[in-house]
């Protein structure tokens, strides 16, 4: 999922996860264990690997800006997991930058401008061109406003567009994302 204000991601996750559903979130791990971001990210990956090896159902949060999870998605698919991706989408990138500035003003961690922009475009591109094909179901949610709204849903190569305008905006960002 795209890098958003912490409260938004957690609120959305809490609103859709089943009670007692295992939710792996590197930011939570960092805060609870007083780890660096890199250490927390590595710990989150170990927790994902452990859940897979123990055949435990779980959810996790990611920006999808890298391909480090690809082997895990392949493993999940091979083991018969039901994979659902809820992809939170914000546009334009300037809105995301403003949200992150606000998060920093409230004490959140700072992220370099160039990193945010690079991850934003990589995230959109990776979700659309790679990760969605591993999902049994995926949903694109526009998160520009306080309430998120469904833009499109699908599974693998299937696609059902719910909001034509918002989907057109999403595809425009995909098109502008450099490979």
Order of helices and strands: HEHHEHEHHEEEH
Strand order of the largest sheet: 3-4-5-6
CATH topology type: Rossmann fold
Overall spatial form: globular
How many domains would you count in the coordinates? 1
What is the CATH architecture descriptor? 3-Layer(aba) Sandwich
State the name of the first-level CATH class: Alpha Beta
SS class = alpha/beta
What does this structure look like?
There is one protein chain. This protein is an alpha/beta fold. It has one domain (6-176): Rossmann fold, CATH 3.40.50. It contains 7 helices and 6 strands; from the N terminus they run H-E-H-H-E-H-E-H-H-E-E-E-H. It has a 4-stranded mixed β-sheet, with helices on one face. Strands 1-2 form a two-stranded parallel sheet. Strand 4 (137-142) and strand 5 form a beta hairpin. Helix 2 packs across helix 3 (37-53) and helix 6 packs across helix 7. The longest helix has 17 residues, at 37-53.
């Amino acid at each position: 999922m795209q890098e958003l204000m912490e409260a938004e991601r957690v609120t959305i996750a809490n609103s859709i996860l089943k009670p007692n559903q295992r939710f792996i979130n590197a930011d939570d791990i960092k805060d609870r264990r007083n780890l660096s971001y890199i250490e927390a990210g590595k710990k989150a990956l170990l927790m994902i690997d452990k859940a897979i090896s123990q055949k435990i159902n779980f959810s996790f949060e990611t920006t999808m800006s890298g391909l480090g999870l690809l082997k895990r998605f392949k493993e999940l698919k091979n083991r018969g997991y039901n994979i659902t991706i809820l992809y939170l989408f914000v546009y334009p990138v300037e809105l995301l930058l403003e949200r992150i500035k606000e998060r920093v003003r409230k004490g959140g961690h700072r992220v370099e401008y160039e990193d945010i922009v690079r991850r934003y475009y990589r995230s959109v591109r990776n979700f659309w061109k790679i990760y969605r094909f591993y999902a049994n179901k995926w949903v694109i949610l526009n998160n520009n406003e306080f309430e998120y709204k469904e833009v499109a849903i699908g599974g693998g190569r299937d696609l059902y567009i719910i909001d034509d305008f918002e989907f057109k905006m999403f595809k425009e960002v995909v098109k502008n994302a450099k490979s």
